[in-house]
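## Example pair
The file below holds two records. Each record gives the amino-acid sequence first, followed by its structure token line.
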Amino acid sequence: MGTAFSIDTPVKVAHYGISSVISLVDDSLIEEMRKHYCALRGEVYTPITKYDHDYRARRITEYLNLVDRIVAEKFEQVRNSCFEIGSEITKYFEMISNNSPIKQLYQQMIKIQDPILKRQLQDRLRSMMRPGDINVNIMTKLDRDNLDAKKNPLPAEFSDALSALRGYAESTLNSAIVFSAGINRRLYSYVEKFDDFYADAAGFIKKRIILKVSDYRSSIIQGRFFAKKGLWISEYRVESGLNCGGHAFASDGYLMGPILEEFKQKKTQLMEDLHAVYTKACAAINRKTFDKPHSVEITAQGGIGTAKENQFLLDYYKLDSTGWATPFLLVPEATNVDEPTLKKLVDAGEKDLYLSEVSPLGVPFNNLRDNFSDLEKDRRADAGRPGSACPKGHLVSNTEFTDKPICTASRQYQKLKIDQLKTMELSPQAFKAIYDKVITKACICNDLGEAALINNNVVKNGQRFSAVCPGPNMAYFSKVATLKEMVDHIYGRINLLNNTYRPHMFIKELKLYVDYFIKEVQKSTLEPTAKQIEYLNEFRKNMFDGIQYYKQLFSKKLEETSQVHENALAELQEYKTKLEDFIAKHTHIFTDLQKVVFSA
């Protein structure tokens, strides 16, 4: 969810048993939030400056320890409050799913008249309460190497990602770290330096590892990498490639339903195969081995919008849990979104939410049209000063004009690139096309953090311009909601969807993939390379396989209304026909044009 939106979400929701994730990208924002909460609590705040040794890791450790203390205190206050209407402990239990055994025990307690028995059940309920996890995230691709005060290169362990990992590893948290955006071997190898990631003699792992994965094959590859070091992956988190917020990593046309089906069919095999590798590695490094695999959770997130979708994922695919993100941008009790941006999100329709090219990483980025970061970016370009001052530099990667990497959203890079274009004798149309691509890059590593500072009145000279990265699901939510209202929506107790027609989450994702595929083909139309042809044919095959899978799923297995079934089957046929017609016009790319026919 970017950097600002959930930077202090555990402080807001963990005492109600709700888990959330803090991004570790922006240590400057983290330090500002530590200062803010120390002031609120009357704690002494000692700044950790950029001139201090290992400042990035230390900032992260100190902030996470502070959040850990706050959550522990707030949780005890909730647990010790009275069972009465409107109390914090009542709110805790009222938000739990009605299907949960603990919720059923709570409802039983409410009905009991005998004061002694009622008190016994209340004590039992208190003993069963748990705070939500304070999890953290490292986007593995963001691993800038750093320099010391004299501009000399620092050792690898002071890179952005490794410093963030060290900051988390040295904190007091008992939680999980989420690795997203692919493999970073340097980062993954660094994990083995910290004991908290290993199972103790009882099999307890204080700091668990969660991999955000795009498919089953990725889980095997990454899981084996860690298993060979005696490290266990506690959760594989499947995220939709395109029906998500933030950066979007299209999974070669593999759709979410078929991916989850493969995990369902092969979970036991995955655990057994990795346990064999894990056991051998533990023995080699003189760590305790275990007869049975540690627990493994398979979870999913991305585009879930209704209680029925949520429950279907849990029941049919045997998932351990699901994740919701984008709708919570409309919940001020849980996330940081500044008021003007919140108003834009409330009003946003499908056309206002789009897959953009604003990220300096060169990865598609889910964006809100006319957000304040983009408006300010356009204003600077119109004034003849395109690009950002690059105040934080977490996304530096380009060495086209400089020895030291710089960011493609920076003023430095964009000026150099535009000056180069001016020497190339391009036609006005060609110049404008390339120029527009250059200036579209936005300073998201800074601007995604602004909302938390705006909301908490952190002083800074000049205006702040916040960015936001909602998923396409935002188009179907148009109401600022309380935390309880959003939780009630998730569990089907109320409905927060607006009146916009919303396709099933699997169909929405398919539409996004079809649109993405068509654009990818159009980019390669003139002179596609052999590699591009191979990629596009594989992408096509996987989408058709997914459509066939959904045809069977919606015909027989999906527990939805007849209207949802009818709409889904009609939309599947529509996208199948659209793909076939498009592919037929590009015979120089697609090698096998035999019609794909739905089986009965």
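Second record, same layout:
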Amino acid sequence: MKNLWDPIEANKCQSDLEQRVYSSRLLGRDATLVLHGGGNTSVKVRERNVLGEEEEILYVKGSGWDLETIQVEGFVPVRMAHLLKLAKVDALSDPQMVNELASQVTRAGAPAPSVETILHAVLPHKFVDHTHADAVLAITNTASGEARIREIYGAEVLILPYVMPGFDLAKACAREFETKAKPSTIGMVLMNHGIFSFGATAEESYGRMIALVDRAEKYLKQRNAWDLTIADTPVAEKPARLEIATLRRDVALTAGSAVVMSTYSDPQSLAFARAADVRDVSQQGPATPDHVLRTKRLPMLGRNIQAYAEAYREYFSRNAASAKEPKTMLDPAPRVILDIEFGLCCVGPSAKEAGIARDLYSHTIDVISRAEALGGYRALSEKELFEFEYWDLEQAKLRRAGMRPVFGGEIALVTGAASGIGRACVEALLRRGAAVVGLDIDPNIATCAGSRPDYLGLHCDVTSEGAVANALEAGVRAYGGLDMLILNAGVFPAGTPIEKLSTEEWRNVLSVNLDANLTLMRECYPLLKLVPTGGRVVVIGSKNVVAPGPGAAAYSASKAALTQLARVAALEWGGAGIRVNTLHPNAVFDTGLWTEEVLKARAESYGLSIEAYKRNNVLKTEVRSMDVGELVAELCGPTFAKTTGAQIPIDGGNDRVI
């Protein structure tokens, strides 16, 4: 472990709370300590309220905040006096605890306090840090874990057996401190859960956390359980996109809704999935119970989704019967899949959630591997993990959850996505919750939508069948399949009369505007027909299909042929539930085709100002790329669920078209 404390940066902090923010972010930077909202930190301060009364306030990490990016407003101020009184009551249900915590928050609009707020209050130190350090979990999650922890830390650390987070854990920690804490006690280990450190300053508490975890790492290294050897596991060369998309379809049907499924065939994932003992070591449970909310208790081995779902239903029935209150079963679909061909597949309602599952399980693989090297991995019992997965507080979150985005869990592919109409389509689909694969010959395609988990920009010449095949393989491995295909890529050459139109130019225009789209439709069809709710194709045509202009023979002919291709596809693919519709834009000037110089010249040729030229249509309105993008997204949505083979103008009304 590396201590990242920088005195210069720390001295910029104006208060204990700002120091708390700084040191929390240092912890959050290290994925071997905390991941995706895991862990929590706190600081106790004295403040005066509006009545001039001095109160002791606990600032604790708020629900929904991540330590890596937390800010001052991410810490919730809670009155210490009431928390200490709560710690002395005999029993407190989860709903009661949540209510009591909320009633003692001193800042309106603050997030909900951590469920471990009372625990932070009873620890008699100003600063408290809590992480789920991989190295510590690799040691606690073994048959002799407690003895090993005592060997490493001696009296410097208190050790508690696993207790469900919340009020019971706070009570257990309070008792442990009252009876066993010594002046030399600088931390606490919760078996199968994580590690705490504390101190009088942010630097001291943070430094102790780093030092304690460093000792765990060195212990593992001394016992040849730190450096992991990954077996040579070559990746199969054959394309797997159809098999991956079929598995995603089966998972979605079991989950009852669309899902993103990301596939990772890196050496670590393949080696673990192909290990001889994978059935034994992977079917015990997660490294820490928090993970069960994102990964479920067990990964699925192979692709027998029916068997996995049935086993999950039996697991629920076994444990729900003895629960204190009625439980509502979550969907029985896996969130993590280990497959000897694919490696690791991670599932979520969005690309972000699938990515979180991947991060969590990749660290779980390391924890399992190191624990095995120490003598054998041991997770919590099925009953304990069920209690966490079906914790009343988590069930309440599900009941409060809002509606999923209209395209949540769905995947779209957009060609010509780096600018203009294509980029607007990407943005409209992302806003509606889709994961989007963008293709373009422009190298900037990789970053045109920013860096985000639900966007994959691929440099691709759509006239190359090999490049298209590679792009589809990459897109399916990233997100699992394809639900929507937006055929937008095209070229609009300079005006050329037929008598001067070269065969080379003619073929080049048809190659991009027509032939490439045939390739894309043919190659995407097997993926689109797997979509349980029906695949969707939107073709970007042109006003020139019905109202061509002189000098645009190649462009007009290519778009007319493309429109005819789309009509035939609508007829042929309807039986597979795939709907194919065409949009015909006109005079969309905020694209790369229309420079200021060209726009000015065209406007002057009509004797119009640029603004008047932009609105030279029946409705006297400007048609922008975003208008086309929005209509594309709507065509893929439920409003047009019973429409196929349509041709829709989006041109402000063109008298020649009308």
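Notes on the second record: The longest helix spans residues 503-528. The mean pLDDT is 94.
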